[in-house]
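Quality-control log, excerpt.
Job 1 of 2 completed; input and output follow.
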Amino acid sequence: MSREARVNNIGIRFEGLTPPQNVCDDDECPWHGHIKVRGQIFIGKVIKARMRNTVVVEREYLVYNRKYMRYERRRSRIHAHNPPCINAKEGDVVVIGETRPIAKSVSKVVLGVLSRGES
């Protein structure tokens, strides 16, 4: 079996999520490495991609306010590992999944890009 053909089954069925075409040798890559994806799955937009192999993903969500009987919009910023085979850039809409802690503030990994940004 050649190196190009080996892709791990990460066990996540998500519409629009396919294995990357490129091959990398990163151990923290869920498709080609040894890291397991478990727990929560998020969709968000990459707002910063300046760190090496790490991106900042911002996601918006709604929280119900009982006093005023309506929803308020909140957002959170999540640091996620960006494998070289996926290579998400600023403006991309990505799917991220929870993993074991990779660094002090990184415990998520980018699983794939749903849509590329304009830049």
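Job 2 of 2 completed; input and output follow.
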Amino acid sequence: MNSLEEDENLRLDFEKVKKALLKYENIIPVIVQDVKTLQVLILAYVNETALQKSLSSGVATFWSTSRNELWIKGATSGQYLDIREVRVNCEQNSLLFLVEIREEGACHTKNSVGKHRYSCYYRYIEDGKLKFVKGLK
């Protein structure tokens, strides 16, 4: 995972959604945004259990498609996301969590000084390579 998360090689997983849907047919995507800045932090998935846990606890809880288990964001990293609002799209097939970041960032990866990254979207594509967004490396 580390080279995938830290290098400049573009290796998009175009099979991710198909694999997730074949394996876990009862999930929907969730876009997670910082309620203050409206920056997109994470794209994740929820099943009914994860959504109910999120609503009842006030802490973003997802279904981990890589670990095949309920994932309370922050339970292992300390990077909890406190839910301020849950929105539903027009077709009721995706959600938007507006959250406050409890600690320093929302991403499980860490920057060059060892702090959790603010967002999982810390690189951009330029000339077919990944480049780090200034200030987010």
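Post-run check on job 2. Residues 48-57 form the longest helix (10 residues).
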